[in-house]
Structure formats: C-alpha cells, structure tokens
C-alpha cells in the first residue's frame, strides 16, 4: 500500500533542514537499489504546488518532492538568483536518499526554476548521468529575459534598495526581498550547459503553455533544439494551447501527459519530435 512520509533532511552545507514528502509504493519492501523520481517546484512554490502532489500520488514509482531552502517548510534563506544554492539543496537530497535508503535517481521532474536546477544537476553530477529521464515543465532557457519584468521593481529599488515581493505560499502570506544583484545573478546562470553536458542517454519531455507570460514558450523550442540531436536519448515536445506558466485549470492535463509519456518510455516507444506525432485524438 502506498504511503507518504514527511522527511526532514539535515543540509550538508547549511545550518537548516530540507523538508519533503517520500511517496513509497511498497514501503514494506527493501529500498536498496530501488528507482525513485524527484519532483522539483519553481520560484516561490512548494512541494505540493500546482501538479506536483497530484503527479506524485499517481506516478508508478517511488518519489520525493521537497521545499528548496527558504521555501515553505524548509529552513535557510531564499534568493532570486540562488540557483547554485538550489543545486546544493538537490545534491544534499540525493545523497540522503542514496545513503539512507539506497535509492537510485531514475527521473527528475521540474517546473520552471525546478527544471533549470534539475537539468543542471543532471549535467554536473555522477548520479545524474545514469538517470533515464528529465521532464522539463515551463523551464526557462534565456535567463536574461528575467529583465523583461524588472520595471515593476525599480521604484522600490530606487527608494529602499530592494523590492518586496508579496505572495501567498501554501495559503500563507510570504514576503521576499529582491535586490538588483539578484536579478544580475539570475541572468548569468548558464542554461546553455545542456548543449554540451546533458547525458546522451537521458530521455526528455518538455511541456510548455503557449500563453506563458513568465517564460516565453519559445524557450521550449530552444530546449528541443538542444536535446533533439542526441542519441540514444530522445526529446518530446508538448505545447499546451491557452495554458499559462502555472497551467491554471490545466494541471491534470500536465499529469496525464507525463504519465502517458512515461509509459511510452518504459515500452520503448519514444521518438524525438512533437509528442503524440501521428495520433489524431482530440484536436
């Protein structure tokens, strides 16, 4: 019987804990050598945000989803440009799952910032080289496009040196500060690493909404170009009409797409190109 267990993982490089949920399909069975999925949230999200929990509860594999540092239940400080810190968080989580349970990472699922972090980890870690799949949902490629939205920050930058970003996370009000240097650091993050360092054997699914106003949908096309020439790893692109960055009212559609693609991967039916090529279905 499937079980959900909350874990508090001591951070290997910071004085904080990373809090997440371990979903196990057969908790009574040994976990050494068992495959697991990692599910990563985006900016100012959390482990149960958007489609993440829905996917975890239906995915036919053990999974772990967690709050990055400074988000929801995890300790530490969040910063807008802190991709390197997020990668450290992911390294800590992977080491804990390996050393405590004996898990091997089979697939990484990321939304937005979580996708960027997950792809970087796959490019730079030994464990990432053996992962079978990456699911990139709303992932940003052109990092400099973060400057498209900074006009909204300038008044507060000029008066107090930082912008107060007020959002609601897990039904709780949250205020984070964004400094000009955070945006600069964000814009310099090297998403282009995927062209040369991404594992050749890892299959990729990219899902993007066509009315995404946070990350332009053309970024999905760029990822298709980067991943589509690899072999034997494949790349599937799925663009969802009238869907925004968070897939508002369309999250079940994202889950269904991921599950169908995962099934095709395990049946050896994946081919590089537009997902569901040749299938008429509902148009």
UniProtKB/TrEMBL annotation:
Residues 38-255 form the AB hydrolase-1 domain. InterPro entries: AB_hydrolase_1, AB_hydrolase_fold. Pfam families: Abhydrolase_6 (PF12697). This is Ectomycorrhiza-regulated esterase.
